[in-house]
Design brief:
With 1530 residues, this protein is an alpha+beta fold. The chain contains 39 helices and 58 strands. It has an 8-stranded parallel beta barrel, surrounded by 4 helices. The protein has a 7-stranded mixed beta sheet with strand order 22-28-29-30-36-32-33, covered by helices on one side. A 5-stranded mixed beta sheet has the order 2-8-7-4-5. Helix 6 packs antiparallel against helix 8, helix 15 runs parallel beside helix 16 and helix 28 packs across helix 39.
Length: 1530
């Protein structure tokens, strides 16, 4: 039945090559197409030929799929989908805009097979197929009696070779009439037809539960097919394929050689009719070269007539008109399409261009013609050498064939050369009277005869299966490389039905007859069948039988090439051969290769990416093309081989004759005897009869029925154990009920009657409880007459049978003894000793878990149902559940705060160490990224899809309970709501610990992923509607924001005013006193996560809007704003917070980011955001020199603190950092500790800094003594930094507006202007900046620009300066990513057209995959790779000096994208739409990184072009925040 609620996601990316990728799906699945990173933000359209709604499938009719979007805002989640309701092969492709298709691929949907009157589903893995040669079944009314053998052998599918009229060769695959039932199936008094066959097939399906399939042969037809005489155009003949003429001529010459050798005409040269040795081969080689090739002169078909070309050249030179031609071409021979001798030509126009006489005199023309004559001879010689190489290959292939057929020990040893057994098989038909060879060549040019010289079919070893070897351009026939089937003619379809209407129509009728009667088809000679033809025919078949089962055997030599056929044709199963294995180890490997997952595999999510697969296998112990196993190995190996094959988690199969031990290959050409009938009372040597005691039939029945049971009940996990060189144990395990079947087989690749096998066998261990021995069997010999090949019936070795006993208790076994042991807890193990286990024996155990473990897994599955109904199977209701498990986990998750969730999910090693712990450390792997659940889930997400059960994490779980105890104990120790969750985990783990160790990883994963999904939803439920209703990208960013906002052992923020409401408190677990516990923002993980280095003013307030306001965490945002407000000193807030007590006031920009955040808070928080301005601030330093005061000592409303910051800036400040010196910062020079800043009241610009300190975000200080850059800032950015000007403008504009509504009580500030005290309103300050900004900062590139002080420093025009008034003026002109920040916070400063040009420069020069380069790559000090470990003499890079001199930082990118959106919208609507696409495309890289990163965050920076930087924080607060900002704005 169709599978429901299963979704597979196929991510589309540019340049994907999916045509040879196999995607297999089941009916009922939903397939979703999502855009990968390379296509996000592009106008992509997805097309498929899968029929929509009730439409019929038409291969060349494609439909445009509609995009769906389940989220608001950005459309990164958009997808288009199809619900798969029919089987077959379906194509998809995508385009961008109106362009041609970018990439395409195929999906294969499996058929659903039904058996019985009630149409029970027969899964593909339950198939047990048996092949019958139809011609050996006798009259149709005897088929049931013969097929009854298959029924009693436990098969549920019969494969018939073609049932049509056979050709003269009697080969099963050489059909004379594809539309007629083989008349041999009728009797003299009774004619049977297709309806009779259909009734039999239906009876087998309904009453026997057996399906029937048959071959379809599209590539050739019998040489004597009557319809071929009427329609010779359906063949490759030398009339419609004149390129075959040389090959035909050679073929005829070889035929005449056969006749001459057979007549003894070469006896005189030492070549008898009986070719017996290498000397005879050498004579044949000599004859072919000296007598045949020299007479045929095959090269003449490929050469030009030199005299004619020269004459034509002379004529045109004298009289003709010269034509223009491309003289860049090389002069070459143009092949005559009719392949006449010397019929080739050259390009005369090119010849005339290449050979020009010196004059027009007769002598000069003769001279020029002589040049042409020599050139033609030269070209002819090239063609001669080409043909010579073909002839060399032809001789080698002829002699190779003769060697195999007449000399080789493993060949057929044909004997003397005769017309019936020629030297080599003829490549072409010849149905005319034999005439001397000299008279045959003219027949090539007689159309009425040439049309009947038809090419035989065959196969070419090592050839490209996608190339038609009979088409022009191939020399296979000439080179004699074809392994030829001399009874069949290769069919010539062309590319479409119109090319050969009769053939296409004829074969379509043939296909339709087959599809009406049979449940499936085997594509014979699939790898040589033109794919277009097979597609067309299978489409016809599926219109009549939608769930057509299609099998094929491919000999492409490449899985990649196999996929071409599987995907395009919708092949359900590929035939795989156990006989290809040379030993038992290889046979076991094939079992593992062709199906199933490892035992203990992870439960995969119902919604997950679509991953490539290998083709489903029909794994056969022997095919009808193989020689008998008795010949290849031994009769004793039949039972072990069949058992090993049957234990594979795929379809299994065999060929009639294998089970009753026919000791030779049953030839599809020569075999004419009949199969035996079933008779339960048959004697061992009864002619024409079989029963269960013959050969291994009794054993085959048991293992076939077991195979069907395992497939039907989803025993889809496989383990193969090579016990010793001959013993293979295969385990099939059910992940639902945790029962296993273990089949142990002792193979017999060598005949044990005359080969040595050891008697001292190793023991093997079987974990779990052995419920029963399903069967034990051994191949034994009995007293009977020796084998004699019967003349009428296909008989096997009568002396062999199987001694089989079924459904035994362990103590009843005659083969093994067992000892029960236990490693620990409920991990019981049986040690199996083999007492009587000779080669050719098998024993199969049914194994379950120990009862206690079975109970525990049932309880565990019961509790997992709340996460996934998949676990309902095998579950047991927990009637004695501990209190922690008496309610759904969602109730516990609902009580967690977002701060609790930070603890539950995240916290890196430094954070945990602060609390006295650390992240979990796994041997041979290392510590996890987080101590919380995400640390474990990031690793599991990588190993789950690959089922990497050998991963160190899985080994750790199997080795002990430490990981489980770590998770639960860590949470229980936290108390509160986390303790409740910890106890839930502890209770669940108590059941998990009772399981066998091999099952713990998969259930550990199931438990964590289930709990995690609930926790994530609980987290999102506490966030803003933007996050809740957003895309997966937005939600992942929302989750990432939780990483950064938490509380450690020691509160990182200074305490807030005691009078403030809404402040969280907790009990200090050391002092047991109440203390504030406001969450703080970490700058980045892992480097800036804990202690003094956790909180940074600049980082906090660049991040605060995105991480807290956009996500709906206004209370936390308020508390952080107020907490930093308490630290105001010198008119600044600190860069490094240091709990407030150890703060450093060494940055000029943090206070402006703080002010911007206050503005953002007021404007974005609904219902009273402006009220924050009146909130009490408990001043830590009410004056510059006051000591740190206790909370509540001095309090002010926030607006007064803001006003103080602005006033101090206007007044100007100079100070030296407290505790300045090397003990504070070893990197700084003494001058660097001096801080100064102010406001230029003429321009309104904030300025500050000097060459020895760096007060903006580009704050890296040199620290290398070797490079002599210690104490020298790499980027001092003194003067007026562009982003500070923007932030200041934003603030004073906002305050000017606020003061008008009395929301802010101050209207301006006092300052000194030209020696006088003046009062400057915020409105005036705003206007000063507005009036002066663009003329001071815009770099026009015009040397006559009156505003340009230093035109010689300009090296990028149409940009905005990075600073204004720097000590080193050239620094002002460096292209850096800072002015887009100003464009976002104060867009009114920019002329839109100028802004757009400047943004284009940034895009062209600074834009990387994830971030913006921090310096123009054209700058002489640019270096895009940051390595803090390098300490050398290079001033510009030593000790990471280039931190901001090239590496690509993520956070400025957010402002760049927002600026692009803003100004494109101002300029033009279409430009805005295009920009949105750009933004989405750029952000797709962040989405991709976020999804794949084990940190589940975005990095601080990358090296050049997005390369990973190991010295960067792996997840950074402002990187996450700015992307959230962009998506919120988008």
């Amino acid at each position: 039945m169709p599978y429901r609620n299963q979704v597979r996601i196929l991510y589309l990316n540019r340049h994907d090559k999916l045509e040879r990728t196999l995607f297999r799906l089941k009916q009922g699945y939903e397939l979703q197409f999502h855009l990968g990173p390379s296509l996000q933000g592009k106008g992509i359209q997805v097309h498929t030929n899968y029929p929509l709604d009730t439409q019929k499938f038409e291969r060349h009719q494609f439909h445009l799929l509609k995009w769906q979007n389940t989220s608001e805002g950005d459309d990164s989640d958009k997808y288009c989908a199809i619900i798969l309701r029919m089987s077959g092969s379906f194509q998809f492709h995508f385009t961008e805009g109106n362009n041609q298709k970018e990439s395409s691929g195929y999906i294969i949907v499996d058929p659903i097979l039904y058996v019985g009157h009630d149409n029970q589903v027969l899964t593909l893995d339950s198939i047990c197929a048996q092949t019958f040669l139809s011609k050996c079944l006798g009259p149709l009314d005897e088929w049931e009696d013969r097929l009854n053998v298959s029924k009693h052998s436990g098969y549920n599918m019969i494969h018939f070779t073609p049932t049509q009229t056979l050709g003269l060769s009697r080969s099963c695959y050489s059909l004379a009439d594809q539309l007629e039932l083989n008349p041999e199936f009728s009797r003299a008094d009774k004619t049977f037809n297709w309806n009779d066959v259909a009734r039999l097939v239906e009876k087998l399906k309904n009453e026997w539960n057996v399906l029937c399939i048959t071959d379809v042969v599209y590539n050739h037809t019998a040489s004597n097919s009557p319809w071929l005489t009427k329609h010779p155009e359906c063949s490759y003949n030398i009339l419609n394929s004149p390129h075959l003429k040389p090959a035909w001529l050679l073929d005829r010459a070889l035929w005449h050689l056969t006749l001459d050798v057979a007549k003894g005409n070469y006896q005189g040269r030492g070549l008898p009719a009986h070719v017996e040795n290498e000397h005879h081969l050498n004579i044949i080689r000599q004859i072919i070269w000296e007598d045949i090739f020299s007479k045929l002169r095959l090269w003449e078909f490929f050469q030009v007539n030199v005299d004619k070309v020269v004459a034509d050249f002379r004529n045109v030179l004298i009289n003709g008109e010269k034509k223009k031609c491309d003289t860049r071409q090389n002069l070459k021979v143009i092949q005559d399409p009719e392949f006449k001798r010397f019929g080739c030509v050259v390009n005369m126009s090119l010849l005339l261009k290449m050979f020009v006489p010196h004059g027009n005199s007769p002598h000069e023309i003769d001279e020029c013609c002589g040049w042409v004559h020599r050139k033609m001879e030269e070209l002819n010689m090239e063609r001669y050498h080409e043909v010579h190489s073909h002839q060399e290959q032809a001789v080698n292939c002829v002699l190779g064939t003769i060697t195999y057929e007449r000399l080789a020990g493993h060949g057929p040893k044909l004997g003397p050369v005769t017309a019936k057994d020629p030297l080599v098989t003829r490549y072409f038909t010849y149905d005319f009277e034999e005439v001397p060879f000299e008279e045959e060549e003219p027949m090539m040019y007689q159309p009425e005869k040439a049309v009947y010289f038809m090419a035989h079919n065959g196969w070419v070893m090592g050839d490209d299966p996608l190339r038609n070897f009979a088409e022009p351009g191939s020399n296979v026939y000439l080179r004699r490389e074809l392994i030829c089937w001399g009874d069949s003619v290769k069919l010539r379809y062309g590319k479409k039905p119109e090319d050969c209407p009769y053939l296409w129509a004829h074969m379509q009728k043939y296909t339709e007859i087959t599809a009406k009667v049979f449940h499936g088809v085997r594509l014979d000679n699939c790898h040589s069948t033109p794919i277009r033809v097979a597609e067309y025919m299978l489409d016809s078949a599926r219109r009549l039988r939608p769930n057509l089962y299609v099998v094929a055997e491919l000999f492409t030599g490449s899985e990649d090439m196999d996929n071409v056929f599987v995907t395009k044709l919708g092949i359900s199963s590929l035939i795989r051969e156990a006989m290809s294995a040379g030993d038992s180890h290889e046979e076991g490997r094939l079992v593992y290769r062709y199906g199933g997952m490892p035992v203990g595999s992870f439960a995969q999510l119902s919604v997950r990416p679509l991953l490539p697969k290998i083709a489903h296998a029909l794994f056969m112990d022997v095919t009808h093309d193989n020689e008998s196993l008795v010949q290849r190995r031994s009769a004793h190996d039949a039972l072990p081989c069949a058992t090993i094959v049957s234990m594979a988690c795929c379809a299994s199969g065999s060929t009639m004759g294998f089970d009753h031990l026919v000791p030779h290959q049953i030839s599809v050409v020569e075999e004419e005897r009949l199969y035996p009938k079933y008779n339960p009372n048959a004697l061992p040597d009864s002619p024409g009869e079989l029963n269960e005691k013959c050969g291994i039939i009794a054993g085959k029945r048991a293992i076939n029925l077991l195979h069907q049971e395992l497939g039907a009940e989803s025993f889809n996990q496989v383990y193969v154990d090579q016990v010793d060189e001959d013993i293979v144990a295969v385990t099939r395990h059910s992940p639902n009920i945790h029962r296993s079947v273990v089949a142990v087989s002792r193979t017999a690749f060598k005949d044990p009657t005359n080969s040595h096998y050891k008697t001292d066998l190793p023991t093997m261990c079987i974990p779990g409880k052995i419920e029963e021995i399903v069967l034990e069997a051994m191949t034994v010999q009995r007293e009977t007459a020796p084998y004699k090949k019967d003349k009428d019936f296909i008989n096997g070795l009568p002396q062999y049978t199987v001694d089989i006993r079924e459904h035994l208790q362990l103590k009843q076994s005659r083969i093994v003894t067992a000892k029960e042991t236990s490693k620990e807890r409920n991990d019981y193990v049986y040690e199996i000793s083999f007492e009587n286990f000779p080669p050719g024996s098998v024993i199969i155990f049914r194994v379950s878990l120990d009862p206690e473990a079975q109970y525990a897994v049932g309880i565990l599955r019961y509790h997992l149902i709340q996460f996934n109904p998949f676990y309902e199977a095998g579950s047991i209701t927990d009637l004695k559940a501990p209190s922690a498990l008496t309610h759904a986990f969602i109730a516990d998750a609902a009580n967690l705060s977002l701060t609790d969730l930070n603890m539950l999910l995240y916290r890196c090693d430094f954070e945990e160490q602060e609390d006295g712990g650390g992240c979990y450390n796994i041997s041979n792997f290392g510590p996890l990224k987080y101590a919380g659940l995400q640390g474990f889930l990031s690793v599991l997400a990588d190993i789950r899809p690959k089922n990497d059960l050998g991963h160190p994490l899985c080994e750790n779980l199997r080795d002990g309970d430490w990981m489980m105890d770590f998770i639960s104990n860590r949470l229980i120790a936290r108390g509160g709501a986390l303790e409740v969750v910890g106890k839930w985990f502890d209770a669940m783990f108590s059941y998990l610990k009772m399981l066998p160790r091999y099952l713990i990883p998969c259930y550990f994963d199931a438990l964590l992923i289930g709990a995690y999904s609930v926790i994530v939803q609980a987290t999102l439920d506490r966030m803003s509607s933007f996050v809740q209703n957003g895309s997966t990208f937005v939600k992942q960013l929302g989750m990432a924001s939780i990483q950064m906002c938490g509380i450690g052992r020691f509160p990182a923020l200074p305490q807030l005013s005691p009078s403030l409401k809404g402040v969280p408190y907790r009990l200090n677990y050391i002092t047991n006193e109440k203390e504030q516990c406001c969450p703080s923002l970490a700058a980045g993980l892992p480097h800036f996560a804990a202690g003094l280095f956790r909180c940074w003013g600049r980082d906090t307030f660049i991040s605060l809007k995105g991480l807290l306001l956009v996500t709906g965490r206004a209370p936390e945002a308020r508390n952080i704003i107020l907490s930093f407000a308490s630290t105001l000193r010198h008119g600044l807030i600190p860069n490094l917070l240091g709990h407030g007590i150890y703060a450093r006031y060494n940055c000029r920009d943090a206070v402006w980011w703080w002010l911007q955040c206050i503005q953002d808070f007021c404007t974005s928080v609904e219902n009273g955001g402006v009220d924050i301005l009146k909130c009490a601030v408990s001043r830590l330093y009410p004056t510059d020199n006051s000591p740190a005061l206790a909370p509540g000592t001095v309090e002010q409303p926030l607006y007064e603190v803001m006003q103080e910051a602005l006033q101090r800036h206007v007044e100007g400040v100079e100070y030296r950092e407290r505790n300045a010196g090397p003990h504070m910062d070893t990197r700084m020079r003494d001058e660097g500790f001096n801080v100064s800043f102010g406001v230029d009241l003429e321009t309104g610009f904030v300025f500050g800094g000097h060459r020895y300190n760096c007060g903006t975000w580009m704050d890296n200080m040199g620290e290398s003594d070797m490079a002599q850059n210690r104490g020298v800032p790499a980027t001092p950015r003194d003067g007026s930094a562009v982003e500070i000007i923007g932030l200041c403008k934003s603030t004073v504009r906002w305050l000017a507006n606020l003061s008008k509504t009395s929301s802010f009580p101050y209207t301006g500030v006092k300052g000194q202007l030209k020696g006088k005290e003046v009062f400057i309103t915020y409105e005036e300050w705003d206007k000063k900046i507005q009036d002066n900004f663009e003329k001071s900062f815009f770099v026009s590139g015009d040397p006559n620009d009156p505003n340009e002080k230093y035109p010689n420093f300009v090296h990028k025009k149409n940009i905005y300066k990075d600073t204004y008034g720097a000590t080193s003026p050239w620094c002002d002109y460096q292209l850096r990513p800072n002015f887009p920040i100003t464009m976002v916070v104060a867009p009114e400063l920019f002329t839109p057209e100028k802004a757009w040009k400047a943004l284009k420069v940034v895009e062209d020069h600074l834009l990387g995959p994830l971030g913006l380069k921090t310096l123009d790559p054209d700058d002489q000090v640019y270096c895009g790779f940051y390595d803090n470990s390098i300490d050398n003499g290079n001033f510009n890079i030593a000790k990471g000096y280039n931190y901001h001199q090239g590496p690509e930082w993520l956070w400025p990118l957010g402002y760049f994208l927002r600026a692009k959106l803003h100004f494109s919208k101002m300029i033009e609507e279409k430009l805005y739409e295009d920009t949105k696409y750009l933004v989405k495309h750029v952000l797709s890289h962040h989405y991709d990184h976020l999804s794949k990163s084990p940190w589940k965050g975005l990095p601080e920076l990358t090296n050049e072009n997005g390369a990973h930087c190991p010295f960067s924080c792996e997840t950074q607060a402002w990187s996450i925040a700015v992307v959230l900002d962009v998506l919120y704005e988008l």
